[in-house]
Amino acid sequence: MMPAGRGLVRLPRWIPVAAGLLLTAGLAVAAMGAGVWPGWLAPLPPAVSGDVEQAASSAEARWRNGVAAIAAARGVAADEALIGSEMGPLVTTLGDLEAKRVAASPAWPRALVREFHRAGLRRGDVVAASFSGSFPALNLAVMCASQAMGLDLVAVSSVTASSWGATDPGFTWPEIEARFAEGGLARRATVAVSAGGDGDRALDLDDEGRSLARDIAARTARQLQARLIEPADFEASVRARLDAFDVARAGRPIAAFVNVGGTEAALGHSTAILMLQNGWLGSLPFDSSPRRGLVARMVEQRVPVLHILNVRDLAVRWGLL
Fold first, then answer.
1. β-pairing, 279-280 with 305-308?
2. Domain segments of the chain: what residues?
């Protein structure tokens, strides 16, 4: 037995008191979002189940198979498969090559599975999506994550794209998806196709580019057994998309809406769009103008919205870079 008064270290009374104060202050600061947890105090991340990890691995494998098929068809390396030309007849706006390369990462399908699961999406849920041609690799990631989780993805896709996107004739996004569907690499997700660009009719292209975009939209709509959207104005463009979603969901609720890229119909002309950050959106104060796009209208209907546009920033926030 230890001699009395030996073997125990008595701390000065101020040390535990100070430690308690520091811990309390740290908890308060972190709760307000103003501080960063020390590594030894950081709360453990939520556990990811084996089923989620299995779905994430399946999504990545599907994505890689799709990329390999496009690389073979184009005769390029896999890391260039979903990077298009800087300029061409179907380019509507300037894009950023770095952003397109960040988007073409196999980390995205895995991350989307985890994000979808975290948002409460489960097998059989309907997920609506707006796909521009600007980020074909992300369109593919959404498709692969949805299919790996057994979600029912219904998308409206556009032909035109910003530079370095799906800009090459023969490999626009609807043509890529048609290849996947015909080759058995992925289930059809697109339920409607438009030319995209200004007015959703490629009005910002020259006559040759506009004619090409419209021809591709019409042909791929037939291939994908999707409706062709040729709207008279902005409101008709938005309405046609909502109608296509309504038919495809067959009375089921839309569990989430994913917007990839910056199509006019998705973003609309509400000034609230200027306040959007990427990722999951909260309830933003959109106005009641008929110029509201799909994002605003889904938020109004309390549908969870995942907005994917500033991809490098989102990749950093999700830990993909």
1. antiparallel
2. 11-39, 50-317
In this structure, how many other beta carbons lie within 10 angstroms of the beta carbon of residue 98?
A: 11
206-231 pLDDT per residue, tens: 999 999 999 999 999 999 999 999 99
Segment 53-83, tens digit of pLDDT:
999 999 999 999 999 999 999 999 999 999 9
SS3 68: helix
pTM for the predicted model, two decimal places: 0.84
Q: Where are the beta strands (DSSP E) in the chain?
A: 91-93, 126-131, 152-158, 161-162, 190-194, 227-229, 254-260, 279-280, 305-308
Comparing CA positions, the residue from 163, 107, 128, 167 lying closest to residue 260 is 128
Q: Output phi, psi for 129, to 5 deg.
A: -150, 150
Structure tokens at 122: 């489960």
Cα separation, 192 vs 122, whole angstroms? 24
Environment class of 291 (CB within 10 Å of its CB; exposed 0-12, middle 13-18, buried 19+)? middle
Cα-trace Rg, the chain: 24
In this structure, is the dihedral angle defined by the CA atoms of residues 184, 89, 265 and 135, taken in order, positive or negative?
positive
- Strand-pairing partners, residue 268, are 292
- Say how far apart CA 167 and CA 84 lie, in whole Å: 5
Instruction: List Cβ neighbours of 25 (8 Å cut-off, separation of 6 or more).
Output: none
Do residues 48 and 114 touch, judged by C-beta distance below 8 A?
yes
